């Protein structure tokens, strides 16, 4: 009895999940929502982004140059004199002045830089560069982090049901159903939001700035909001934006109309920020975002609390809020380039939905007619179970937060066609048992029992195929795989457990005549 109640509960619950999709005006709990439509059905925008891994690797090599330089100039371990230290085409190279120090150079660099770099030595000439394994890992990590950061930025804007996934190794596919104006999102996604803190090189003269030729270890960066003004900053990063824990937009406490962004660092960032502001009192430092100086204040006193404030000349509070969103979501590990943009109109999606409804309805009607003609009373039961199966597919897809696409509709139609097979197999086994002389009750039991292996084998094979499609496919293929996977599971439930339960009730524990069987 408990098993029967569980079957009924699951079937009723699955149908209830589909009611908001069938009729959104019906009252329903807030946790039961209509199924969300994909880009091809609802309309919206699609962006294909490319992760600029070449730029990322150039930046990594600059950091590698600084790490090599710091390692060689380490006073605690003893400075190693070198010449011609440079960074060319991703390779940091230098010449060791004293040949006796060559082996010490290798040991020190290996201990401090680890296995991520290859070290080649030719006499006193040393070359350091990232290994191929490290490069591949950096690219994969950059792609994964970029997807997560893009997701957080889009979610922060309140965009509903975005689809964000990797494609082709270094591409990100972003689908925004219902959004026909993606310009603001493109602008937000395109910003790397890499914030760093640098000391300002106060020894640079106006003539050097005018020439544009920065000395080694210094960069001339533009001052945001001040055309033509350059700020000389040391290339060395004192504090990285990766240590940023929170950023909130607001107004300056001393000037209630000036928008600012308040920042909070984690423990590591707070310690570095306190060290920076303690050791360089009365010196100027620059807050740099994506290669532009937001502000360059003078450090008046140590700031030990890990809290700061950015006043980058924001025109209004909205600009400050957008910067806060970027900083909270984190810096992109590599720039993103929009290489393809596509907009789908809602009218086209409505036509697709209508065509999908007609295809599904026609398919279901023909299947039901076929089942009723061939199996009469059992055909009516199979038709009812088929409708429950359809409702459960829709309801479970909505409950799991799945998005219905045109390939998803194709998966539903295909599932309904395959569900017929899960009914026909036991029905035909019942027919064989009746012909062999079994009573109707025994024929029903034997028919379902003996056909179970074939039903399970066929559906599990389909489930494995759909899971493989989901794992290795992308975009529309995944939509097809999701509905097909859910459909296989609901088919096994409805066409085996639920169908058997209803037939048992239909028989009422008696050897009723099964009208569709003709015993010869």
From TrEMBL:
Gene3D superfamilies: 3.30.1360.200, 3.30.70.3400, Multidrug efflux transporter AcrB transmembrane domain
Positions of transmembrane segments: 353-373, 380-400, 406-425, 454-474, 480-503
Domain SecDF P1 head subdomain: 220-334
Occurrences of domain Protein export membrane protein SecD/SecF C-terminal (ranges): 337-506
Protein translocase subunit SecDF P1 domain boundaries: 144-201
GO cellular component, one term: plasma membrane
Compartments reported by the entry: Cell membrane
GO biological process terms, semicolon-separated: intracellular protein transmembrane transport; protein targeting; protein transport by the Sec complex
Family from the record: Belongs to the SecD/SecF family. SecD subfamily.
Assembly and oligomerization: Forms a complex with SecF. Part of the essential Sec protein translocation apparatus which comprises SecA, SecYEG and auxiliary proteins SecDF-YajC and YidC.
Protein name: Protein translocase subunit SecD
